[in-house]
Amino acid sequence: MKTILLALLVALIGSCNAGKTFNKAEDAQDAGRQFIRASLDGDYEKARFYLLSDSVNLLLITKWQQGFDKMDRDTRQQYRDASILPISIRTVNDSVTIYSFSNSFRKDTTTVRIVRVQGEWLVDLKEILNDKHP
């Protein structure tokens, strides 16, 4: 009996930790779109999937998430309902694309760098700290 209960408990825990699965971005524009949509929706697990994982990017995404979590429910819903408004998508070379966008809720322009690392397209938020674009 204990063995059956233990097996059920392990199965339950395993199914809870299965987490979401996400598809790798097909190209730079897809990585940018997936990341931005996840950020607007407050899905920071998905946003982190499309993020270049380094200490600065992880700090920046954590700050974004904390800001989103502090917003009132109506504001968060307005972000979820917002459309992505691409302003400029510029290919720098075969491994770097600059993606500038705003959204239909807030008209602020944000620019991110999308980089290809080991064949995978990932968003590099450090571009928001730069004033210049290559």
Which features would summarize this protein structure in a list?
134 residues; alpha+beta; Nuclear Transport Factor 2, Chain: A; 4-stranded antiparallel beta sheet; 5 helices; 4 strands; 45% helix; 23% strand; globular
How does this structure look, described?
The chain has a four-stranded antiparallel sheet with strand order 1-2-3-4, covered by helices on one side. The protein has one domain: Nuclear Transport Factor 2, Chain: A, CATH 3.10.450. With 134 residues, the chain is of the alpha+beta class. It contains five helices and four strands; from the N terminus they run αααααββββ. It is 45% helix and 23% strand.
Give the terminus-to-terminus CA distance: 65 Å
Number of domains: 1
**Can you tell me the residue ranges where pLDDT is under 50 for at least 5 consecutive residues?**
5-17
Enumerate how many helices there are, as a single number.
Answer: 5
**In which order are the strands of the major sheet placed?**
1-2-3-4
Instruction: Based on the coordinates given, report the CATH architecture.
Output: Roll
Main pleated-sheet profile: 4 strands, antiparallel
SSE blueprint and pairings:
Blueprint: H1 2-16, H2 28-41, H3 44-49, H4 55-70, H5 73-81, E1 84-93, E2 96-103, E3 110-117, E4 120-124
Antiparallel strand pairs: 1-2, 2-3, 3-4
Give the structure's gist in a few sentences.
The protein is α+β, with helices and mostly antiparallel strands and 134 residues long. It has helices at residues 2-16, 28-41, 44-49, 55-70, 73-81, and strands at residues 84-93, 96-103, 110-117, 120-124.
